[in-house]
Write the structure tokens for this entry.
Amino acid sequence: MNTMDMFRLDGKVAIVTGGSGVYGQHLCLGLCEAGALVIVAGNELDACEAAAEKFTKAGHKAVAMHLDLSKEESINALANQVAEQYGSIDTLVNCAVSRAGNQNLEDAEAELWEASERINGTGTMLMTKAVIKYMRKQGKGSIINISSIMGVVGPYFPMYEQNGSVSGLEYTYTKSAMFGMTKWLANFYGKYNIRVNSISPGGNNIAGTKDEIGSQALIDTYLSLTPMNRFADEHDLKGPVVFLASDASRYMTGQNLIVDGGYTNW
Ligand SMILES: NC(=O)c1ccc[n+]([C@@H]2O[C@H](COP(=O)([O-])OP(=O)(O)OC[C@H]3O[C@@H](n4cnc5c(N)ncnc54)[C@H](O)[C@@H]3O)[C@@H](O)[C@H]2O)c1
């Protein structure tokens, strides 16, 4: 097996949930550029169609599909449609996120926490359940859970206090829970040649703009805590996702790749 050929994804089918989001698009493009047919899935169909069109215009294979992770029928319909239409589901990237429950503990409302968890916890579990039966039939598959530095370390609150923003408890809870889910799935499905890993990105340069964050002081603090002194750009997750989706990582499962410019090194 030639080393560089092991990274190729020609003929493979990948579903990316939240594929029209900021990191979702970076991940989709990485998989497309490695040769995969990418299903750009999410609850904002117009945005998924716009992203898929951008990728196809650049010569890649991408299709937009509607997915509402709060509804089991929608999740099952997507998995069934992809398997029937394209013959396999080789990679699932669980990237979609709800931030409805982004609150500090003493402001937390059960209804908003549960609305987030319906997507981030239950939705991720049901999506994985819907594709795993196809991966078992195929005798192979790769599942990649997009966690966060916020699953690896707790929030550095003085930074968020600089502009009164919140890094909520539910987000840290759900992102760290992904590591447990990753290990459980990896251990259960290893014998079926289904690998399950996670990626923990740092902040990206769109989420990291002053318009988005509203405070230069917060940006400066974030960068001062990041040895590489920059936010992630549109290329930084491409290599890691292609590595985990492809045969280049064929003996690797249950692991977490931290891609954060060193933010969590301290
Ligand atoms: N933004 C960052 O700096 C950052 C840092 C570390 C990790 N992450 C992680 O990366 C992933 C993407 O983050 P982002 O900031 O690019 O997100 P984003 O807000 O740009 O996109 C979120 C996506 O999730 C989709 N989504 C939300 N609810 C859904 C539902 N019910 N059904 C289907 N899709 C739904 C949206 O349509 C959207 O495409 C998340 O898992 C996030 O935790 C982001």
About this structure: Residues 109 and 139 are 43 Å apart (CA to CA).
